[in-house]
Design a protein that fits this description.
The chain is an alpha/beta fold. It is built from 24 helices and 16 strands. The radius of gyration is 26 Å and the shape is globular. The protein binds phosphoenolpyruvate and magnesium ion.
Length: about 575
């Protein structure tokens, strides 16, 4: 019996999957040069036109299916690809090349798109540079159709499969059917790679960034994907299988226990209402938010609109998404966060020595007000629904807020001068996620309508620990007393200025943290949709005085470990029901 092997990667989508490996490989296309006799040149140009039409049809079919299955926003990136197929200059160049050089269509087409992609990649304009991947996505589809090759598509993957791939292209990632595909493992990618984003949105357990994966795994092998711990287990031993069977059974039991909470109000036992809302990356996730009983969207990470289509979506495209989201979430509110690009959510070919300390989020937007205003206009236009709030990430200085106010006011005036309507009362909030913003929170609170604490970044910057670096992940702990004292300071500053304070980092979903945060006075908790029922269950089992006592005690400790030990002990002793839902 082959030895068990554990392959470590990055956990990007939680859950456990057991299944059969399906190696997803897009075969390399070889293009040969063939002379064409003059009498056949017309046929050759027609063959090329037909391949373009077929590709257009293929992409429209894909788009149609995604629109039906996942929602409109998800397939928008295909618009750009479909448009490329109608590009007159490419079409004319290829037809001219076929006739003048008397060469086969695939050879000429391959050369033309290679030249085109090369020119775009040399462009100074970020937008054009980012179109290169689209050109190859489309180009390879056309070439496959010309060569009569079938597409290796995720659509054809048999039910019960675990997809193993080097990477999955954006158009393919969008086709993944969660009913058939149990898990995903890739060699490439990080937390915000396309595969990771899609897996989380579709709730498929996934591990990415497994070094050398493709040389270590074969088609048909039985594997386990552990999306909680970020490992793929090859040839699992019977005791390992048993361990995961128990874990899966526990997950199912937990779901049964929590499902009655989907529709219940998020109130403490003694009647205090705390908003429990959802963090989403895609428009289509609003269905999950609604299913699990979210009372609004507490964080819409709009940078994914940019990342999934690899470039800046137009004002109109953004407006359509924000407007539809606001409408679907009524009567609840939707907090739209402006682009948090940079950090680990990188532009395709822009690199910095310290991206988390670099050109990120609001810094990118304030450096290019014209670019920023496209998004501000789209959000303001959607605000006519009266349930939209706007939020700005990565604020580190008072001047940041002053400068945002200037651009925001200018944008409002511009809309007004064009008689475009928006909500004049739109709430203006900031993420408090840098130590400087936390320490200065009483000054910042006078300038805004709400705070939302970004505990992921607040922990990273306070402790000086890169949130995505596996080597030091044991040092990343949002229960560190330094983080907790800053959270207390932010909440107090907000309340003194009579504004509400929420928290939208991973800490919000942690059942150990919820009583503590409520005791500190948090008004809203925003988390990934699937965690909402558990948060409601915790909330409904506790009272405000109990939470206040927990918060007071928690702030006395010197280490994260002491805090967590105390919380575990107290919950086990006083709230056995909550203890049962802690994984
Ligand atoms: C955070 O930093 O806690 C947060 C919610 O934002 P993001 O994870 O997108 O940086
Ligand atoms: Mg953040």
């Amino acid at each position: 019996m082959a030895k068990e092997r554990r392959l470590k990667g990055i956990a990007v989508s939680e859950g456990i999957a057991r299944g059969t490996v399906f190696i997803y490989e897009t075969k390399k296309i070889e293009v040969f040069q063939t002379p064409i006799f003059s009498v056949y040149l017309k046929d050759e140009t027609e063959r090329f036109e037909k391949a373009l039409d077929k590709t257009k049809q293929d992409l429209s079919n894909i788009q149609e299916r995604i629109n039906q299955e996942t929602g409109k926003g998800f397939a928008q990136f295909l618009d750009a690809q479909i448009m490329m197929l109608s590009d007159k200059s490419i079409k004319e160049k290829v037809k001219k090349g076929i006739i003048e050089e008397k060469k086969n269509a695939e050879y000429v087409y391959h050369r033309v798109i290679s030249d085109y992609a090369k020119k775009l990649s040399e462009s100074k304009d970020q937008y054009f540079k980012e179109r290169v991947a689209d050109i190859w996505d489309v180009g390879l589809r056309v070439l496959r159709n010309l060569l009569g090759l079938t597409h290796s598509s995720v659509v054809d993957v048999p039910a019960g499969s675990i997809i193993v791939a080097h990477d999955i292209s954006p158009s393919e990632a969008a086709l993944i059917n969660p009913k058939k595909i149990l898990g995903i493992a890739t060699e490439a990618g990080g937390r915000t790679s396309h595969t990771a984003i899609t897996a989380r949105a579709l709730e498929i357990p996934a591990v990415v960034g497994i070094k050398g994966l493709m040389n270590k795994i074969e088609n048909g092998e039985k594997v386990i994907i552990d999306g909680d711990r970020g490992i793929l287990i090859k040839n699992p031993t019977s005791s390992r299988i048993h361990f995961y069977e128990i874990a899966e059974e526990k997950d199912r039991e937990l779901e049964k226990t929590l499902s009655p909470y989907y529709g219940l109000p998020s109130k403490t036992q003694d009647g205090r209402h705390i908003d429990i809302s959802a963090n989403i990356e895609f428009f289509s996730e609003y269905t999950h938010a609604r299913k699990y009983g979210a009372e609004g969207i507490g964080l819409f990470r709009t940078e994914f609109l940019y990342l999934t289509r690899r470039g800046n979506p137009s004002e109109e495209e953004q407006y359509r998404v924000y407007n539809a989201l606001a409408k679907r979430m009524k009567p609840h509110s939707v907090i739209i966060r402006t682009y948090d690009l940079g950090g680990d959510k990188i532009f395709s070919d822009y690199h910095e020595a310290n991206p988390f300390l670099g050109w990120r989020a609001i810094r990118v937007c304030l450096d290019d007000p014209d670019f920023f205003k496209i998004q501000l206009r789209a959000i303001l236009r959607a605000s006519v629904n009266k349930n939209v709030k706007i939020m700005f990430p990565m604020i580190s200085t008072y001047e940041d807020i002053k400068r945002i106010h200037l651009v925001f006011e200018e944008t409002k005036q511009e809309l007004k001068s064009h008689n475009t309507e928006y909500d004049g009362e739109i709430q203006f909030g900031i993420m408090v996620e840098t130590p400087s913003a936390a320490i200065m929170s009483s000054q910042l609170a006078t300038q805004v309508d709400f705070f939302s604490i970004g505990s992921n970044d607040l922990t990273q910057y306070t402790l000086g620990v890169d949130r995505g670096n596996e080597k030091i992940s044991q040092l990343f702990d949002h229960f560190h007393p330094a983080v907790l004292h800053l959270i207390q300071q932010i909440i107090n500053s907000g309340h003194q200025a009579h504004i509400w304070v929420g928290l939208c980092g991973e800490l919000a979903a942690d059942p150990l943290a919820i009583p503590l945060l409520i005791g500190l006075g948090i008004d809203e908790l925003s988390m990934n949709p699937a965690s909402i029922p558990r948060a409601k269950m915790v909330l409904r089992s506790i009272t405000i005085p109990q939470c206040e006592e927990i918060a007071k005690e928690s702030l006395k400790f010197r280490t994260a470990l002491e805090v967590k030990r105390y919380l575990r002990r107290t919950i086990r002793k006083k709230f056995p029901k909550i203890d049962e839902v802690i994984k």
